[in-house]
Amino acid sequence: MEKKNEFKVVSVNKSRYILPNVLTLIGVCLGISSIKFAMDGNFSYAVLFLVVAAILDALDGRVARLIKGTSDFGKELDSLTDFVSFGIAPAFIIYFWELNKFGKIGWLIVLLFSVCCVLRLARFNLTKFEKKDEWKNNFFQGVPSPAGGCLILLPLIFQLSSFSNFIDLTSITPYFMVLISFLLISKIPTFSFKKIAIRRNMTIFLLLGVGLFFVSIVQFTFDTLTICILTYLFLIPIGIYNYKSKSKTANKIDIEDEQQDIL
User: Fold this and answer.
1) For the chain, is the Cβ count within 10 Å smaller at the N or the C terminus?
2) For residue 80, what are the contacts with CB-CB under 8 A and spacing of at least 6?
3) Which residues touch 164 (CB under 8 Å, ≥6 apart)?
4) What sign does the dihedral 247-253-256-257 (CA atoms) show?
5) What is the pLDDT of residue 125?
6) Calpha distance 90→69 (Å, rounded)
7) Is residue 191 helix, strand or coil?
8) What is the pLDDT of residue 251?
9) 94, 82, 81: which is closest to 47 by C-alpha?
10) What's the pLDDT tens digit per position in 166-193?
């Protein structure tokens, strides 16, 4: 008897490439859906959908590397979806919330942010480091697009939090959005958090921190998001200092290697 061929949607060798791309596509669907919520005036859900999209964007690359499912297709798909989810969606959310009050100026700010985001993504795709400069993989040039998309939501998230009882950040929205737009295309080094090594004896504290974060994000969603965004902004100057320190160390090593070669 002839053995019947089993039906397979994708071969076993290709299956590991599916999961990261599925996460990427779910992320872009969430990003587009956030625009719909913003159009309906439901800014709370718009923010939450975009934050979840940012989390999935952070996971898809790590999942791909973990299961050895990286591919050129996945890389291009990730960049295209990043532009939609973090270059267009957050700008539209802020426009429907506040910038539409500024007329043509508000729309120009939306275009500025989107253009800066696509330029940032194009530069990221072309950025490559030599083997001796692998330490630079711990840093991004400028603010990455997912972070930029979340950062411009700060005035809105702040308004939705309990912190708005003390101060109102709505008035800074257009200026803050312009600032983040230029940070996207700047060459300011920011932490990439790609290679974070956790000691085995610190794992329990990491799990505790994740648990506390989950509880706080459920109970105090927008307060926690506000603190996270402010923490990221605080880390930018620390990243600049850390980058310069590592750069000096790398330059010293290069000089020593050159001197040894001469001798």
Assistant:
1) N
2) none
3) 158
4) negative
5) 77
6) 29
7) strand
8) 74
9) 94
10) 898 899 999 999 999 999 999 899 988 7
Domains parsed from the chain with CATH numbers: 15-127+136-247 (1.20.120.1760)
Parallel/antiparallel/unpaired status of strands 139-141 and 189-191: antiparallel
Could you tell me what percentage of the chain is helix, strand and coil, using 3-state DSSP and rounding each to the nearest 5? Answer: 80, 0, 20
Element (H, E) at 1: none
Rounded to two decimals, what is the model's pTM?
A: 0.85
Residues for the chain: how many in total? 263
- What lies within 8 Å, CB to CB, of 185 at 6+ separation is 116, 119, 120, 123, 142
Query: What are the φ and ψ backbone dihedral angles of 198, each rounded to 5 degrees?
Result: -110, 125
Asked if residue 166 lies in contact with residue 226, where contact means CB atoms within 8 angstroms, the answer is no
Which amino acid is present at 36?
A: K
Question: Which amino acid type is present at position 254?
Answer: D
Q: What is the DSSP letter of 141?
A: E
